[in-house]
Amino acid sequence: MVSTHILSAYDDELKFLSRRISEMGGLAEQMVSDAVRALVNSDAALAQKVISDDVILDAAEREVGDKAIITIARRQPVAADLREIIGSIRIASDLERVGDLGKNTAKRVIAVQGSGVPRKLARGIEHLSELALVQLKEVLDVYTNRSAEKANAIRERDEEIDAMYTSLFRELLTYMMEDPRNITSCTHLLFCAKNIERIGDHATNIAETIYYMTTGAQPEGERPKDDTSNTVGAVTE
Amino acid sequence: MVSTHILSAYDDELKFLSRRISEMGGLAEQMVSDAVRALVNSDAALAQKVISDDVILDAAEREVGDKAIITIARRQPVAADLREIIGSIRIASDLERVGDLGKNTAKRVIAVQGSGVPRKLARGIEHLSELALVQLKEVLDVYTNRSAEKANAIRERDEEIDAMYTSLFRELLTYMMEDPRNITSCTHLLFCAKNIERIGDHATNIAETIYYMTTGAQPEGERPKDDTSNTVGAVTE
Protein backbone atom coordinates (compact mmCIF):
# COMPACT_ATOMS: atom_id res chain seq x y z
CA MET A 1 0.00 0.00 0.00
CA VAL A 2 2.61 2.45 1.12
CA SER A 3 4.79 1.77 -1.90
CA THR A 4 1.83 2.24 -4.28
CA HIS A 5 1.12 5.51 -2.55
CA ILE A 6 4.71 6.67 -3.01
CA LEU A 7 4.73 5.61 -6.64
CA SER A 8 1.54 7.47 -7.32
CA ALA A 9 2.88 10.63 -5.66
CA TYR A 10 5.98 10.26 -7.84
CA ASP A 11 3.80 9.87 -10.88
CA ASP A 12 2.00 13.06 -9.90
CA GLU A 13 5.32 14.88 -9.73
CA LEU A 14 6.26 13.73 -13.23
CA LYS A 15 2.81 14.70 -14.50
CA PHE A 16 3.13 18.09 -12.87
CA LEU A 17 6.33 18.75 -14.83
CA SER A 18 4.87 17.71 -18.16
CA ARG A 19 1.65 19.67 -17.59
CA ARG A 20 3.68 22.75 -16.71
CA ILE A 21 5.79 22.34 -19.86
CA SER A 22 2.67 22.08 -22.00
CA GLU A 23 1.29 25.24 -20.39
CA MET A 24 4.57 27.05 -20.99
CA GLY A 25 4.44 25.92 -24.61
CA GLY A 26 0.93 27.27 -25.04
CA LEU A 27 1.90 30.63 -23.57
CA ALA A 28 5.09 30.87 -25.65
CA GLU A 29 3.11 30.18 -28.84
CA GLN A 30 0.55 32.81 -27.90
CA MET A 31 3.28 35.38 -27.18
CA VAL A 32 4.96 34.85 -30.54
CA SER A 33 1.70 35.01 -32.41
CA ASP A 34 0.63 38.16 -30.51
CA ALA A 35 4.02 39.81 -31.05
CA VAL A 36 3.85 39.33 -34.81
CA ARG A 37 0.25 40.53 -34.90
CA ALA A 38 1.24 43.60 -32.88
CA LEU A 39 4.09 44.25 -35.32
CA VAL A 40 1.98 43.91 -38.43
CA ASN A 41 -0.92 45.97 -37.05
CA SER A 42 1.19 48.50 -35.12
CA ASP A 43 -0.69 47.49 -32.00
CA ALA A 44 1.26 48.94 -29.06
CA ALA A 45 -1.20 47.65 -26.44
CA LEU A 46 -0.85 44.07 -27.67
CA ALA A 47 2.95 44.48 -27.72
CA GLN A 48 2.77 45.59 -24.08
CA LYS A 49 0.75 42.49 -23.21
CA VAL A 50 3.47 40.26 -24.72
CA ILE A 51 6.11 42.05 -22.68
CA SER A 52 4.11 41.46 -19.46
CA ASP A 53 3.42 37.81 -20.33
CA ASP A 54 7.15 37.12 -20.37
CA VAL A 55 7.28 37.45 -16.58
CA ILE A 56 4.87 34.51 -16.25
CA LEU A 57 7.02 32.36 -18.53
CA ASP A 58 10.20 33.22 -16.61
CA ALA A 59 8.55 32.25 -13.32
CA ALA A 60 7.29 28.98 -14.85
CA GLU A 61 10.80 28.06 -15.98
CA ARG A 62 12.16 28.61 -12.49
CA GLU A 63 9.32 26.54 -11.04
CA VAL A 64 10.02 23.62 -13.41
CA GLY A 65 13.73 23.79 -12.54
CA ASP A 66 13.05 23.80 -8.80
CA LYS A 67 10.48 21.00 -8.93
CA ALA A 68 12.73 18.92 -11.16
CA ILE A 69 15.58 19.11 -8.67
CA ILE A 70 13.30 18.32 -5.72
CA THR A 71 11.91 15.33 -7.63
CA ILE A 72 15.37 13.99 -8.46
CA ALA A 73 16.54 14.40 -4.85
CA ARG A 74 13.41 12.76 -3.44
CA ARG A 75 12.89 9.91 -5.95
CA GLN A 76 16.43 9.25 -7.14
CA PRO A 77 15.27 8.20 -10.57
CA VAL A 78 17.47 6.40 -13.09
CA ALA A 79 17.31 5.72 -16.84
CA ALA A 80 14.16 6.92 -18.65
CA ASP A 81 12.66 8.73 -15.63
CA LEU A 82 15.86 10.63 -15.01
CA ARG A 83 16.12 11.61 -18.68
CA GLU A 84 12.50 12.73 -18.56
CA ILE A 85 13.17 15.07 -15.64
CA ILE A 86 16.43 16.45 -17.04
CA GLY A 87 14.64 16.86 -20.37
CA SER A 88 11.94 18.97 -18.75
CA ILE A 89 14.61 21.38 -17.44
CA ARG A 90 16.02 21.70 -20.97
CA ILE A 91 12.65 22.14 -22.65
CA ALA A 92 11.54 24.75 -20.11
CA SER A 93 14.72 26.66 -20.85
CA ASP A 94 14.05 26.58 -24.63
CA LEU A 95 10.47 27.72 -24.13
CA GLU A 96 11.59 30.54 -21.88
CA ARG A 97 13.90 31.71 -24.67
CA VAL A 98 11.09 31.50 -27.20
CA GLY A 99 9.19 33.86 -24.90
CA ASP A 100 12.20 36.20 -24.78
CA LEU A 101 12.26 36.30 -28.58
CA GLY A 102 8.54 37.10 -28.63
CA LYS A 103 9.17 39.88 -26.11
CA ASN A 104 12.09 41.27 -28.10
CA THR A 105 9.89 41.34 -31.22
CA ALA A 106 7.13 43.10 -29.29
CA LYS A 107 9.60 45.71 -28.04
CA ARG A 108 10.38 46.68 -31.63
CA VAL A 109 6.74 47.48 -32.44
CA ILE A 110 7.13 51.10 -31.32
CA ALA A 111 10.31 51.59 -33.37
CA VAL A 112 8.64 50.29 -36.52
CA GLN A 113 5.30 52.04 -35.93
CA GLY A 114 4.26 54.62 -38.49
CA SER A 115 7.22 53.90 -40.74
CA GLY A 116 4.98 52.57 -43.50
CA VAL A 117 6.40 49.08 -43.83
CA PRO A 118 5.13 47.74 -47.15
CA ARG A 119 2.43 45.11 -46.93
CA LYS A 120 4.62 42.62 -48.76
CA LEU A 121 7.36 42.68 -46.10
CA ALA A 122 4.85 42.50 -43.26
CA ARG A 123 3.31 39.47 -44.97
CA GLY A 124 6.79 37.94 -45.24
CA ILE A 125 7.30 38.24 -41.49
CA GLU A 126 3.83 36.85 -40.83
CA HIS A 127 4.45 33.91 -43.10
CA LEU A 128 7.80 33.15 -41.46
CA SER A 129 6.13 33.24 -38.06
CA GLU A 130 3.40 30.88 -39.27
CA LEU A 131 6.06 28.33 -40.24
CA ALA A 132 7.85 28.72 -36.90
CA LEU A 133 4.58 28.43 -34.97
CA VAL A 134 3.59 25.25 -36.83
CA GLN A 135 7.02 23.85 -35.92
CA LEU A 136 6.54 24.83 -32.27
CA LYS A 137 2.99 23.46 -32.12
CA GLU A 138 4.04 20.15 -33.64
CA VAL A 139 6.98 19.76 -31.31
CA LEU A 140 4.68 20.34 -28.34
CA ASP A 141 2.33 17.65 -29.69
CA VAL A 142 5.30 15.31 -30.05
CA TYR A 143 6.20 16.15 -26.44
CA THR A 144 2.74 14.99 -25.37
CA ASN A 145 3.01 11.76 -27.38
CA ARG A 146 6.73 11.16 -26.85
CA SER A 147 7.35 9.94 -30.38
CA ALA A 148 11.06 9.72 -31.18
CA GLU A 149 10.32 9.18 -34.85
CA LYS A 150 8.23 12.33 -35.19
CA ALA A 151 10.79 14.30 -33.16
CA ASN A 152 13.37 13.41 -35.76
CA ALA A 153 11.10 14.48 -38.63
CA ILE A 154 10.57 17.94 -37.11
CA ARG A 155 14.28 18.39 -36.74
CA GLU A 156 14.70 17.99 -40.48
CA ARG A 157 12.12 20.61 -41.35
CA ASP A 158 13.97 23.57 -39.85
CA GLU A 159 15.70 24.12 -43.20
CA GLU A 160 12.49 25.48 -44.69
CA ILE A 161 12.36 28.26 -42.10
CA ASP A 162 16.04 29.06 -42.63
CA ALA A 163 15.57 29.35 -46.40
CA MET A 164 12.58 31.63 -45.99
CA TYR A 165 14.43 33.79 -43.48
CA THR A 166 17.33 34.21 -45.91
CA SER A 167 14.98 35.28 -48.68
CA LEU A 168 13.28 37.80 -46.37
CA PHE A 169 16.71 39.08 -45.30
CA ARG A 170 17.52 39.75 -48.95
CA GLU A 171 14.21 41.55 -49.57
CA LEU A 172 14.66 43.78 -46.54
CA LEU A 173 18.16 44.76 -47.68
CA THR A 174 16.83 45.65 -51.14
CA TYR A 175 14.11 47.78 -49.63
CA MET A 176 16.67 49.61 -47.49
CA MET A 177 18.85 50.28 -50.52
CA GLU A 178 15.93 51.67 -52.49
CA ASP A 179 15.21 54.32 -49.89
CA PRO A 180 17.55 55.05 -46.97
CA ARG A 181 14.60 56.39 -44.98
CA ASN A 182 13.57 52.75 -44.55
CA ILE A 183 16.84 51.77 -42.90
CA THR A 184 15.85 52.13 -39.24
CA SER A 185 12.52 50.36 -39.47
CA CYS A 186 13.83 47.64 -41.78
CA THR A 187 16.73 46.96 -39.43
CA HIS A 188 14.24 46.32 -36.65
CA LEU A 189 12.28 44.05 -39.01
CA LEU A 190 15.52 42.18 -39.79
CA PHE A 191 15.96 41.50 -36.10
CA CYS A 192 12.31 40.46 -35.80
CA ALA A 193 12.80 38.01 -38.68
CA LYS A 194 15.96 36.70 -37.00
CA ASN A 195 14.03 36.27 -33.73
CA ILE A 196 11.44 34.17 -35.52
CA GLU A 197 14.09 32.10 -37.28
CA ARG A 198 15.61 31.40 -33.86
CA ILE A 199 12.24 30.21 -32.58
CA GLY A 200 12.51 27.49 -35.23
CA ASP A 201 15.94 26.60 -33.78
CA HIS A 202 14.46 26.26 -30.30
CA ALA A 203 11.69 24.01 -31.65
CA THR A 204 14.47 21.89 -33.14
CA ASN A 205 16.32 21.84 -29.80
CA ILE A 206 13.12 20.64 -28.12
CA ALA A 207 12.68 17.92 -30.76
CA GLU A 208 16.23 16.74 -30.03
CA THR A 209 15.57 16.72 -26.30
CA ILE A 210 12.41 14.63 -26.82
CA TYR A 211 14.37 12.20 -28.97
CA TYR A 212 16.94 11.90 -26.22
CA MET A 213 14.30 11.52 -23.49
CA THR A 214 12.55 8.67 -25.31
CA THR A 215 15.57 6.80 -26.70
CA GLY A 216 18.50 7.74 -24.45
CA ALA A 217 20.50 8.54 -27.59
CA GLN A 218 21.40 11.74 -29.40
CA PRO A 219 19.76 12.11 -32.82
CA GLU A 220 22.11 11.12 -35.64
CA GLY A 221 23.86 13.54 -37.94
CA GLU A 222 24.46 17.26 -37.92
CA ARG A 223 21.50 19.52 -38.29
CA PRO A 224 21.52 22.96 -39.89
CA LYS A 225 21.44 25.20 -36.85
CA ASP A 226 22.19 28.36 -38.71
CA ASP A 227 20.52 30.37 -41.42
CA THR A 228 22.37 31.07 -44.68
CA SER A 229 21.92 34.84 -44.70
CA ASN A 230 25.67 35.16 -44.07
CA THR A 231 26.16 34.41 -47.75
CA VAL A 232 24.06 37.42 -48.80
CA GLY A 233 26.46 39.97 -50.17
CA ALA A 234 29.37 37.57 -49.97
CA VAL A 235 29.96 37.48 -53.72
CA THR A 236 29.08 41.04 -54.62
CA GLU A 237 32.25 42.74 -53.46
CA MET B 1 37.90 1.35 2.76
CA VAL B 2 35.32 0.52 0.13
CA SER B 3 33.23 3.53 0.95
CA THR B 4 36.25 5.85 0.76
CA HIS B 5 37.02 4.36 -2.60
CA ILE B 6 33.48 5.04 -3.83
CA LEU B 7 33.54 8.58 -2.48
CA SER B 8 36.80 9.32 -4.18
CA ALA B 9 35.51 7.95 -7.51
CA TYR B 10 32.47 10.19 -7.05
CA ASP B 11 34.72 13.13 -6.38
CA ASP B 12 36.60 12.33 -9.56
CA GLU B 13 33.34 12.41 -11.49
CA LEU B 14 32.47 15.83 -10.12
CA LYS B 15 35.97 17.07 -10.87
CA PHE B 16 35.72 15.69 -14.38
CA LEU B 17 32.60 17.80 -14.98
CA SER B 18 34.12 21.00 -13.67
CA ARG B 19 37.38 20.47 -15.56
CA ARG B 20 35.44 19.89 -18.76
CA ILE B 21 33.41 23.06 -18.18
CA SER B 22 36.57 25.08 -17.67
CA GLU B 23 38.01 23.67 -20.90
CA MET B 24 34.81 24.50 -22.76
CA GLY B 25 34.99 28.02 -21.36
CA GLY B 26 38.56 28.44 -22.57
CA LEU B 27 37.66 27.25 -26.06
CA ALA B 28 34.55 29.43 -26.23
CA GLU B 29 36.59 32.50 -25.26
CA GLN B 30 39.20 31.68 -27.88
CA MET B 31 36.54 31.23 -30.58
CA VAL B 32 34.94 34.59 -29.84
CA SER B 33 38.25 36.37 -29.76
CA ASP B 34 39.36 34.68 -33.02
CA ALA B 35 36.04 35.43 -34.73
CA VAL B 36 36.31 39.15 -33.97
CA ARG B 37 39.94 39.21 -35.05
CA ALA B 38 38.98 37.44 -38.29
CA LEU B 39 36.24 40.02 -38.84
CA VAL B 40 38.42 43.03 -38.21
CA ASN B 41 41.36 41.71 -40.28
CA SER B 42 39.26 40.04 -43.01
CA ASP B 43 41.03 36.80 -42.18
CA ALA B 44 39.04 34.04 -43.89
CA ALA B 45 41.38 31.25 -42.74
CA LEU B 46 40.95 32.23 -39.09
CA ALA B 47 37.18 32.42 -39.61
CA GLN B 48 37.28 28.87 -40.98
CA LYS B 49 39.18 27.71 -37.87
CA VAL B 50 36.43 29.14 -35.63
CA ILE B 51 33.79 27.31 -37.65
CA SER B 52 35.68 24.01 -37.23
CA ASP B 53 36.28 24.58 -33.51
CA ASP B 54 32.54 24.70 -32.93
CA VAL B 55 32.31 20.95 -33.54
CA ILE B 56 34.61 20.34 -30.55
CA LEU B 57 32.46 22.51 -28.32
CA ASP B 58 29.24 20.76 -29.41
CA ALA B 59 30.78 17.38 -28.63
CA ALA B 60 31.98 18.61 -25.23
CA GLU B 61 28.47 19.78 -24.34
CA ARG B 62 27.02 16.37 -25.18
CA GLU B 63 29.76 14.70 -23.13
CA VAL B 64 29.04 16.87 -20.08
CA GLY B 65 25.31 16.13 -20.40
CA ASP B 66 25.86 12.37 -20.69
CA LYS B 67 28.36 12.21 -17.80
CA ALA B 68 26.11 14.37 -15.63
CA ILE B 69 23.18 11.99 -16.09
CA ILE B 70 25.36 8.93 -15.46
CA THR B 71 26.71 10.55 -12.29
CA ILE B 72 23.23 11.39 -10.99
CA ALA B 73 21.96 7.86 -11.72
CA ARG B 74 25.00 6.23 -10.08
CA ARG B 75 25.49 8.50 -7.04
CA GLN B 76 21.98 9.76 -6.41
CA PRO B 77 23.20 13.07 -5.07
CA VAL B 78 21.04 15.52 -3.16
CA ALA B 79 21.26 19.20 -2.20
CA ALA B 80 24.50 21.00 -3.18
CA ASP B 81 25.97 18.07 -5.13
CA LEU B 82 22.82 17.68 -7.18
CA ARG B 83 22.71 21.42 -7.88
CA GLU B 84 26.36 21.27 -8.90
CA ILE B 85 25.67 18.56 -11.48
CA ILE B 86 22.50 20.16 -12.85
CA GLY B 87 24.41 23.45 -12.95
CA SER B 88 27.13 21.90 -15.09
CA ILE B 89 24.50 20.86 -17.67
CA ARG B 90 23.21 24.43 -17.78
CA ILE B 91 26.63 26.05 -17.99
CA ALA B 92 27.75 23.66 -20.74
CA SER B 93 24.66 24.66 -22.69
CA ASP B 94 25.42 28.38 -22.30
CA LEU B 95 29.03 27.85 -23.39
CA GLU B 96 27.94 25.85 -26.40
CA ARG B 97 25.74 28.79 -27.41
CA VAL B 98 28.62 31.22 -26.95
CA GLY B 99 30.52 29.03 -29.41
CA ASP B 100 27.59 29.18 -31.84
CA LEU B 101 27.64 32.97 -31.65
CA GLY B 102 31.38 32.96 -32.34
CA LYS B 103 30.76 30.68 -35.31
CA ASN B 104 27.94 32.86 -36.65
CA THR B 105 30.23 35.90 -36.41
CA ALA B 106 33.00 34.02 -38.24
CA LYS B 107 30.57 33.03 -41.00
CA ARG B 108 29.92 36.70 -41.72
CA VAL B 109 33.60 37.47 -42.33
CA ILE B 110 33.30 36.64 -46.04
CA ALA B 111 30.19 38.81 -46.47
CA VAL B 112 31.91 41.80 -44.89
CA GLN B 113 35.30 41.25 -46.58
CA GLY B 114 36.48 43.97 -48.91
CA SER B 115 33.57 46.25 -48.12
CA GLY B 116 35.85 48.82 -46.52
CA VAL B 117 34.33 48.95 -43.06
CA PRO B 118 35.64 52.12 -41.46
CA ARG B 119 38.27 51.62 -38.77
CA LYS B 120 36.03 53.33 -36.22
CA LEU B 121 33.23 50.78 -36.57
CA ALA B 122 35.65 47.85 -36.54
CA ARG B 123 37.15 49.29 -33.33
CA GLY B 124 33.64 49.53 -31.88
CA ILE B 125 33.01 45.84 -32.49
CA GLU B 126 36.41 44.97 -31.05
CA HIS B 127 35.77 47.04 -27.96
CA LEU B 128 32.35 45.45 -27.44
CA SER B 129 33.93 42.01 -27.72
CA GLU B 130 36.61 42.95 -25.20
CA LEU B 131 33.91 43.82 -22.66
CA ALA B 132 32.04 40.57 -23.36
CA LEU B 133 35.24 38.53 -23.10
CA VAL B 134 36.18 40.13 -19.77
CA GLN B 135 32.69 39.22 -18.55
CA LEU B 136 33.09 35.63 -19.78
CA LYS B 137 36.60 35.29 -18.31
CA GLU B 138 35.46 36.59 -14.92
CA VAL B 139 32.46 34.34 -14.80
CA LEU B 140 34.70 31.35 -15.54
CA ASP B 141 37.00 32.43 -12.67
CA VAL B 142 33.96 32.71 -10.41
CA TYR B 143 33.00 29.20 -11.55
CA THR B 144 36.39 27.94 -10.36
CA ASN B 145 36.07 29.72 -7.00
CA ARG B 146 32.31 29.25 -6.56
CA SER B 147 31.76 32.70 -5.11
CA ALA B 148 28.06 33.60 -4.93
CA GLU B 149 28.89 37.20 -4.10
CA LYS B 150 31.09 37.70 -7.15
CA ALA B 151 28.55 35.90 -9.33
CA ASN B 152 26.00 38.52 -8.34
CA ALA B 153 28.40 41.38 -9.12
CA ILE B 154 28.98 40.09 -12.67
CA ARG B 155 25.28 39.88 -13.26
CA GLU B 156 24.95 43.59 -12.59
CA ARG B 157 27.65 44.55 -15.06
CA ASP B 158 25.85 43.33 -18.18
CA GLU B 159 24.23 46.76 -18.54
CA GLU B 160 27.53 48.26 -19.68
CA ILE B 161 27.66 45.87 -22.65
CA ASP B 162 24.02 46.57 -23.52
CA ALA B 163 24.62 50.33 -23.51
CA MET B 164 27.67 50.00 -25.72
CA TYR B 165 25.81 47.73 -28.12
CA THR B 166 23.00 50.26 -28.45
CA SER B 167 25.47 53.03 -29.23
CA LEU B 168 27.17 50.87 -31.87
CA PHE B 169 23.76 50.00 -33.32
CA ARG B 170 23.07 53.71 -33.76
CA GLU B 171 26.46 54.35 -35.39
CA LEU B 172 25.99 51.51 -37.84
CA LEU B 173 22.56 52.84 -38.85
CA THR B 174 24.01 56.30 -39.43
CA TYR B 175 26.76 54.87 -41.59
CA MET B 176 24.20 52.95 -43.66
CA MET B 177 22.13 56.08 -44.17
CA GLU B 178 25.15 58.08 -45.31
CA ASP B 179 25.88 55.64 -48.11
CA PRO B 180 23.48 52.85 -49.12
CA ARG B 181 26.41 50.87 -50.53
CA ASN B 182 27.31 50.16 -46.90
CA ILE B 183 23.96 48.53 -46.15
CA THR B 184 24.84 44.88 -46.76
CA SER B 185 28.13 44.87 -44.88
CA CYS B 186 26.79 47.01 -42.02
CA THR B 187 23.81 44.72 -41.62
CA HIS B 188 26.19 41.82 -41.11
CA LEU B 189 28.15 43.93 -38.62
CA LEU B 190 24.89 44.70 -36.78
CA PHE B 191 24.32 40.98 -36.39
CA CYS B 192 27.92 40.47 -35.27
CA ALA B 193 27.44 43.17 -32.63
CA LYS B 194 24.20 41.52 -31.54
CA ASN B 195 26.01 38.17 -31.29
CA ILE B 196 28.58 39.72 -28.99
CA GLU B 197 25.92 41.40 -26.88
CA ARG B 198 24.28 37.99 -26.48
CA ILE B 199 27.58 36.52 -25.28
CA GLY B 200 27.31 38.96 -22.39
CA ASP B 201 23.82 37.57 -21.71
CA HIS B 202 25.19 34.03 -21.59
CA ALA B 203 27.91 35.13 -19.16
CA THR B 204 25.11 36.55 -17.02
CA ASN B 205 23.17 33.27 -17.27
CA ILE B 206 26.27 31.40 -16.10
CA ALA B 207 26.70 33.82 -13.18
CA GLU B 208 23.09 33.14 -12.17
CA THR B 209 23.65 29.39 -12.39
CA ILE B 210 26.74 29.65 -10.18
CA TYR B 211 24.78 31.69 -7.65
CA TYR B 212 22.12 29.00 -7.64
CA MET B 213 24.67 26.18 -7.38
CA THR B 214 26.37 27.72 -4.35
CA THR B 215 23.34 29.08 -2.48
CA GLY B 216 20.37 27.00 -3.67
CA ALA B 217 18.50 30.26 -4.28
CA GLN B 218 17.73 32.31 -7.38
CA PRO B 219 19.48 35.70 -7.44
CA GLU B 220 17.18 38.51 -6.33
CA GLY B 221 15.56 41.03 -8.63
CA GLU B 222 15.10 41.30 -12.37
CA ARG B 223 18.13 41.74 -14.50
CA PRO B 224 18.27 43.60 -17.77
CA LYS B 225 18.36 40.73 -20.27
CA ASP B 226 17.76 42.85 -23.28
CA ASP B 227 19.57 45.65 -25.03
CA THR B 228 17.85 49.00 -25.54
CA SER B 229 18.39 49.27 -29.29
CA ASN B 230 14.65 48.81 -29.77
CA THR B 231 14.23 52.44 -28.74
CA VAL B 232 16.44 53.62 -31.60
CA GLY B 233 14.16 55.24 -34.12
CA ALA B 234 11.18 54.99 -31.81
CA VAL B 235 10.74 58.75 -31.48
CA THR B 236 11.77 59.86 -34.92
CA GLU B 237 8.64 58.91 -36.84
Automatic annotation (TrEMBL), chains A, B:
Residue span of region Disordered: 217-237
GO BP terms in the entry: intracellular phosphate ion homeostasis; negative regulation of phosphate metabolic process; phosphate ion transport
InterPro entries in UniProt: PhoU (IPR028366), PhoU-like_sf (IPR038078), PhoU_dom (IPR026022)
Keywords noted in UniProt: Cytoplasm, Phosphate transport, Transport
The keyword GTP-binding belongs to this UniProt entry's keyword annotation: no
Cell compartment(s), UniProt: Cytoplasm
The keyword Transport belongs to this UniProt entry's keyword annotation: yes
Pfam families: PhoU (PF01895)
Residues of the signal peptide: none
Task performed by this protein: Plays a role in the regulation of phosphate uptake.
Subunit-structure text: Homodimer.
NCBIfam families in alphabetical order: phoU_full (TIGR02135)
Family named by the database record: Belongs to the PhoU family.
UniProt name for this protein: Phosphate-specific transport system accessory protein PhoU
Species of origin: Metarhizobium album
